[in-house]
């Protein structure tokens, strides 16, 4: 029954996200068809005919019903801007975003775990680790990205600043996005490690004469890293938001750049398709995190 409830919760999340975007976009004046044809000098009759052809002249509830009727059949519609299938557009841009998000998640996990452990154990380097975590959490991505471009691309000329394919062009955007992803992970690890350092089971382990390094590895980290699983899943879900800024700043093709361009163009079907994909990925990642949490901690297995 709990599994059924989680499935319904995931479906509700996707429905709510797409519904909010559906009506929010239509509250804005104009649409992609109207803006495109006005720029080309088309008459009002031509614009009205094209909008009727796309079904944009129908009342919002009718458009909403038609959209979900196609959605449940796996049809995300066609771009109002260039007529391409939304599914094709998404798959064309999915690869670069997965490379960016995957690399940023790996870098963020390594950085966040390292900073969190160092910051939580009250060592000589703990203050420096906490400062880096605070900077990663408080500094805007666009500022960090601009600084990275200025330093490594303009001044030192070590890496390309924009538009490069392959590994060299991926290093800077991955480093920038991974740095901010690692801030959230590091804060969770630091808090968890600091709370468990003085727990009863840790004091018992110390009383047995175990070395401090063994106590930290076998007892503090084993328990302290469990809550981080959920944080990593949340950070993965939020990577698309960071990808929008990062891909735009580094002029990289991807879902984030496509989402930004489609929003500015009021290309309803594309924005709705990307929103549905993001919401589905977000809910699936959280379900996977809950399952992993239960697997590592049998005490809560019955809750999943």
Structure characterization notes:
- With about 300 residues, the chain is mainly alpha-helical.
- The protein folds into two domains: about 1-70, no CATH class; about 85-265, Orthogonal Bundle (MetI-like fold).
- It is built from 13 helices and no strands.
- The chain is globular.
- Residues about 300-304 have low confidence and may be disordered.
Q: What count of domains describes the coordinates? A: 2
Strand-pairing-aware structural class: mainly alpha
Major sheet characteristics: none
CATH class of the largest domain: Mainly Alpha
Shape: globular
Q: Can you tell me the CATH topology of the largest domain?
A: MetI-like fold
Calculate the mean pLDDT score and round it: 82
Q: Low-confidence parts lasting 5 or more residues at pLDDT below 50?
A: 300-304
Question: What kind of oligomer do you see?
Answer: single chain
Order of helices and strands: HHHHHHHHHHHHH
Q: What is the structure about, briefly put?
A:
By secondary structure, the protein is an all-alpha fold.
Question: Which key phrases capture this entry?
Answer:
mainly alpha, MetI-like fold, 2 domains, disordered C terminus
Please write out the topology:
Blueprint: H1 2-27, H2 32-39, H3 44-53, H4 60-71, H5 86-120, H6 126-138, H7 141-155, H8 166-196, H9 200-207, H10 212-224, H11 228-249, H12 255-264, H13 268-296
